[in-house]
Design a protein that fits this description.
homodimer; about 325 residues; alpha/beta; Rossmann fold; eight-stranded mixed beta sheet; two-stranded antiparallel sheet; 10 helices; about 35% helix; about 25% strand; globular; disordered N terminus; Phosphopantothenate--cysteine ligase cab2 (chains A, B); ligase (chains A, B); EC 6.3.2.51 (chains A, B)
């Protein structure tokens, strides 16, 4: 029978290309230049001393064909990233939000990715106008007021594929580098570990008449290494580790910290990620952040706790710099 | 180097399992019973003689892990299906809309899958209330009125995975079967050609430390065959064929017609699908439907033309039954 399995071939690390080779062999996204200009202007417009954060959000796609009909995707609606972006805005940060196209957006996330759409929140007011349905009015007004108040400090940049994401991540990291410890990189996007090099892609839609399909994918280079060492070495870097096997979570999070030398890993399990995460640093025990089911149901997002704790640690980091 | 290639192994058709085996080996979706009840009640509530259409929309996912972090997806926002559903409603049909979760919805499609969300269309009215921003007001009011007028004849059922889709397609087809020629099946969803049997899935998130990844996928059984022959033999069945290689489009569409014996194949190419399609039937030359770039820019959807032509043919089919 078919199976999803890794090849048991040659040792792994030797086969993984380095990040520069990846950039040499892949096309930058169409919005790269425009994103560069927008982010540069946004950083320049912030008052001195205001902290800045890059929040990445949503999953990357890996196309299986050049004329893309199919792709491998990573599970992520963008809940963590979009909610965190709101918390950083509330905490006074300027936020660059690098998100997967059509994933959840700060503030608007409450009203999308649902069965309901815009028209379900509205009704004709009987006088030729439109009003918000009474059952939604209070919540919409409150969210609208928060949004109007904070949106000037929010800049959104979108990606779709893994390559888009990596080019944009490098570009924005390099732009943030001169701001040093004042900036945080909060890497909540679900980034593919595997890719098909673009020159090896099938040109057209893969045909099924030939029977089974076998896909060979390469391991994605570890971009956290140049990010921490080269692109933005003075920034405060937070990465995320999502696993489904509880036994692997801490060792893998610890391994990432040791290997890349960034500041915090937020470790979480797929099925408990909405109420339980661990913050790992090199020099301390894991810090558990947890909310109750009751808090969750009453609309308390765990991102409030994650961001509050990271803002505190970022301040310590920045004042020591 | 890595490559996306098909195995050149044994002849294909012999290896493809039959649809019943697929259903025996996969789990039905959690919403199957609820969908059954809702669709049965919806069909029963329609006045005698009102035509009914099942519109399928959006792409199916194929999970790579049982605790799903990654999946193979088919490119489809659901534009064709959601726009077509509106046209069928305007033409007097009752519409069962079987859609991929979070894909575009009839009427609401104009306001989702965009950078803007609900809050971007609204503003505080300065008197403690909320109003629609003036630049959107006319369009929103017009769409809201259409939606309010037609929504009673629309029933929505959602799917995510390939298995969800196939179980729901069978269930709804069987419920429509007794309505015979009065019903149309309009199969616009982008359905995966390959899958990984659930008992062969990796239990946990596939680890990247081992190096490259090789995925073996089986060909999905051709469900159009039992749908036409067994599930809903008297219904008017329209399938879609999307290709990227122009040379393959007509032969493949023609092959499907000959093989499955349904009524119409709507053939389209990935890059021209928004302004050009061909309707193929067994006994006639392909019928080209085309709109100009200018029409497209002025908001004319080609689905208006596709649905108008299919409604005409469905009437002929129903009166001959």
């Amino acid at each position: 029978m078919s199976t999803a399995s890794k090849t048991q071939a040659a040792p792994a690390e030797r086969k993984v290309i380095d990040p520069d080779t990846y950039f040499d062999h892949n096309q930058p996204p169409a919005n790269l230049q425009q994103a560069h200009s927008a982010v540069a202007a946004f950083i320049g417009a912030q008052e001195a001393g205001r902290p800045i954060v890059l929040v990445t959000s949503g999953g990357t796609t890996v196309p299986l064909e050049n004329n893309t009909v199919r792709f491998v995707d990573n599970f992520s609606a963008g809940t963590r990233g979009s909610s965190s972006a709101e918390q950083f805005l509330e905490a006074g940060y300027a936020v660059v939000f690098l998100y997967r196209e059509h994933s959840l957006q700060p503030f608007n996330r409450q009203y999308s990715h649902r069965t309901e759409g815009l028209l379900d929140y509205l009704q004709p007011d009987g006088r030729g106008g439109i009003s918000v349905r009474p059952e939604y009015k209070e919540r919409v007004l409150s969210d609208l007021n928060r949004y109007e108040q904070l949106r000037a400090r929010l800049l959104k940049v979108s990606f779709t594929t893994l390559a888009d994401y990596l080019f944009l991540l490098r570009e924005i990291s390099l732009l943030l580098a001169p701001t040093g410890a004042r900036s945080m990189l909060y890497l909540a996007a679900a980034v593919s570990d595997f890719f098909i090099p673009s020159h090896s892609l099938a040109e057209h839609k893969i045909q099924s008449a030939g029977g089974d399909l076998t896909l060979h994918m390469n391991q994605v280079p570890k971009f956290l290494r140049p990010l921490v060492k080269v692109w933005a070495p003075a920034c405060f870097v937070v990465s995320f580790k999502l696993e489904t096997d509880p036994g692997l979570l801490e060792p893998k999070a610890r391994h990432a910290l040791d290997k890349y030398g960034h500041h915090v890993v937020v470790a979480n399990l797929l099925h408990t990620r909405k109420w339980q995460v661990w913050l790992l640093t090199r020099d301390a025990d894991p810090c558990l952040l947890q909310i109750s089911q009751d808090q969750l149901l009453r609309g308390h997002d765990i991102e409030q706790d994650i961001v509050a704790e990271l803002v505190r640690r970022h301040k310590v980091h920045a004042s020591a710099a």
